[in-house]
Amino acid sequence: MGLLDIVLLPATMNFCYPAINAALEAARDIKAPLIIQLSQCGSQFYAGKGLSNEGQHASIVGAISAAYHVRRVAKECGIPVVLHSDHCAKKTFTAASINQEIDAVSYGVVKMNVDTDTQWVYWEGIRNFYESKKGYLQTQVGNPEGPDKPNKKYYDPRAFIREAEKKYGETCAAGLEMLIVYNNPSC
Fold first, then answer.
1. CA separation for the pair 36, 22 (Å, rounded)
2. Do residues 121 and 170 make contact, with C-beta atoms less than 8 angstroms apart?
3. Which residues partner with 29 through β-bridges?
4. pLDDT per position as a tens digit, 111-132
């Protein structure tokens, strides 16, 4: 690949740790690089909406926390990841210098946002889980199997968050696979 070739990388807007994990898992499974984007509001969410964001403090803490998480988990996944702060205020997350940005473009790196799609499918995973388990999600005890049957395993957030991760990961994988073919016409 020469300096004038273009490499498209998918960029996912990641608004929570399960979304980051799903994107990294998808990239790992198909051995593809990825761009993880953080927004100012998303960064605040990582720190917790209960923290004050006066002076953008929670956004800064959250962006740093997410960056550490991405760096550590990406290393375990064995994939290259670019962390991008496209909607963060400059003081929230220090951006690359203009020279670094010019260098990246001259190397042919271009990103493709898939954030709207991934946000929708994250919700879709939760919605599908709810629809398929509706009879188990109305009370703590009592479901289609009997009035004294517990429902904890259905309303445990880990259950529906995992379904959201799966849908999110499927969408990330589809974008990654499309770009692998684009970037490697011999595939």
1. 11
2. yes
3. none
4. 555 566 777 888 999 999 999 9
Which DSSP state fits 177?
Answer: H
Please choose, from the candidates 31, 32, 39, 27, the residue with its C-alpha nearest in 3D space to the C-alpha of residue 7.
32
The residues with which 37 forms a beta bridge, in sequence order, are 13, 84
Q: Letter for the amino acid at 124?
A: E
> pLDDT tens digits, residue range 141-160?
999 999 999 999 999 999 99
Residue 32: Cβ within 10 Å count: 20
CA angle 177, 166, 136 (to 5 degrees): 160
Tell me which amino acid residue 1 is: M
Q: For 33-91, how does the pLDDT look when each residue is reduced to its tens digit (9 = 90+)?
A: 888 888 888 888 888 889 999 988 888 888 888 888 988 999 999 988 888 775 555 55
User: Which domains, ranges and CATH numbers included, belong to the chain?
Assistant: 7-183 (3.20.20.70)
- Helix 157-183 vs helix 115-132: crossing angle, to nearest 10: 140
CA atoms within 13 A on the CB side of 144: 7
